[in-house]
TrEMBL record:
It holds the Pfam family Pyridoxal_deC. Its EC number is 4.1.1.28. It comes from the Eukaryota. This is Aromatic-L-amino-acid decarboxylase.
């Protein structure tokens, strides 16, 4: 803990990152290395004697940076975006510098209190219903897992009232979770951890989960003596950015005593723009809602926000209360340790606080709208080229799914492979309803019209080469 060294080394480190940001566009978006590349470049044992900070900085390019995939390159169109901004990075420095572990209010009051406040700011900015209490979380996957555990705790309490002899073990055999066949794999993982059954509801031709299919599944499962208790609906699916019909699904969940959790990991950020709020029609039925500011709201990983209608079931699900964690204010201030699996909790809310203050809601809206405009520009290119077609069109946010018209899966796979081997741009595919499709997601805060034009030139060139060969 040497403040002078922090100043001098911090300056070196910041300069390195600033230079990286300045030159990121010139780097190949995908690294040219093979698995195991790093081991021969590093000593086989940790250094016995201390080294100079400048030596580490000097080594970075030839070791670590050689193996980086540049997620913030304007040529990165893969997966979904992951946010970043100088505001969030600076906030992270403060969080790392304070380095508190805010598991309870007393463990660091400002850590808990700022989280409550920025979660309220965020809820207001998105126009979420007032019944959502303030809380935060680590990642969207964790939000699904903890809400599933809370829902299990709720159904267990309800069943115990009917039959005091019932055990959780017995009940688990009967519990069944629903999600669409397009839901993120984190739902499968959560049910594996919790140990209950999962049923995937078949989505319609546009990848949307609808109430009628859910209702039918519930009828069939109740006939088998199963107990439906949790539904994950997605707003903005990973593969095609489809939006489940939460108004219809919500009504079914209300009638059937099913906890409705919304995973809006990517698309949630768009709700900061009033023109996209219609996409969460039906939000009044929701028991819990999560999205990732760390995807599309200028906040670096990790920062996932989660709200719940009734916190009781969280406290029930995770309430362990050893003496060393007790404090005098635990009935008046939230202790976030009850909302998560780890005990320790980072001071993540600083990132949101800095981003809100530096960009303002207006700046965040401008950023989201710009990405959506860039996606529309790409759609325009695809639609005006007879070789391609847009597939599974959803409400266009920043993701465009396309493929070669009448092209086989093999041909589309070849196209993607050629594009990624070329390394000028980076895309990932999806397999949706038996079709191999290419996903083009606007990701970087540096992406401008000229980059989308460039990406289109690359796609055009590589497609022409491929089609002349075949
Ligand atoms: N849910 C959806 C719809 C996603 O698209 C993703 C990641 O892309 C996740 C969940 C997982 O998010 P996290 O990495 O925050 O767990």
């Amino acid at each position: 803990m040497d403040p002078d060294q922090l100043m001098s080394c911090g300056q070196m480190m910041l300069k390195f990152v600033a230079d990286y940001w300045k030159t990121i566009e010139n780097r190949s978006v995908l690294p040219s290395i093979q698995p195991g590349y790093l081991r021969p470049l590093l000593p086989s044992h940790a250094p016995e004697k201390p080294e100079q900070f400048s030596q580490i900085i000097n080594d970075l390019e030839s070791t670590i940076m050689r193996g980086v995939t540049h997620w913030h390159s304007p040529h990165f169109y893969a997966y979904f975006p992951t946010g970043n901004s100088y505001a969030a990075v600076c906030a992270d420095i403060l969080s790392a510098g304070i380095a508190c572990i805010g598991f309870s209010w007393i463990a660091s009051p400002s850590c808990t209190e700022l989280e409550v406040i920025v979660m309220d700011w965020l809820a207001q900015a998105l126009d979420l219903p007032e019944f959502f209490l303030s809380t935060g979380n680590g990642t969207a996957s964790e939000a699904t897992l903890v809400t599933l555990l809370a829902a299990r705790s709720k159904i267990f309490c309800q069943m115990q009232k009917k039959d005091p002899n019932i055990t959780l073990g017995k009940l688990l055999d009967q519990l069944i979770v629903y999600c669409s066949d397009q839901a993120h794999s984190s739902v499968d993982k959560a049910t594996l951890i919790v140990g209950c059954k999962i049923r995937k509801i078949v989505s319609d031709d546009n990848c949307v989960m609808k109430a009628a299919q859910l209702k039918q599944a519930i009828i069939e499962d109740r006939a088998k003596n199963l107990i439906p208790f949790f539904l994950v609906a997605t707003l903005g699916t990973t593969a095609t950015c489809a939006f489940d019909d939460i108004a219809g699904l919500g009504k079914v969940c209300q009638d059937e005593n099913i906890w409705l959790h919304i995973d809006a990991a990517y698309a949630g950020s768009a709700f900061i723009c009033p023109e996209y709020r219609y996409l969460f029609d039906g939000i009044e039925y929701v028991d819990s809602f999560s999205f990732n500011p760390h995807k599309w709201m200028l906040v670096n990983f990790d920062c996932s926000a989660m709200w719940v209608k009734d916190r009781t079931y969280f406290i029930n699900a995770f309430n362990v209360d050893p003496l060393y964690l007790k404090h005098d204010y635990q009935n008046v201030a939230p202790d976030y340790r009850h909302w998560q699996i780890p005990l320790g909790r980072r001071f993540r809310s600083l990132k949101l606080w800095f981003v809100f203050r530096i960009h303002g809601i207006s700046g965040i809206r401008k950023y989201i709208r710009k990405h959506i405009e860039l996606a529309k520009l790409f759609i325009n290119y695809i639609e005006n080229d007879k070789r391609f077609e847009i597939v599974f069109p959803s409400t266009t946010l920043g993701l465009v799914c396309f493929c070669l018209k009448n092209g086989s899966n093999e041909l589309n796979e070849k196209l993607l492979k050629s594009l990624n081997e070329d390394k000028r741009i980076y895309l990932v595919p999806s397999m949706v309803k038996g079709r191999f499709i290419l996903r083009f997601a606007i990701c970087s805060y540096l992406t401008e019209v000229k980059h989308v034009d460039y990406a289109w030139t690359v796609i055009n060139e590589i497609t022409t080469k491929l089609l002349t060969k075949t």
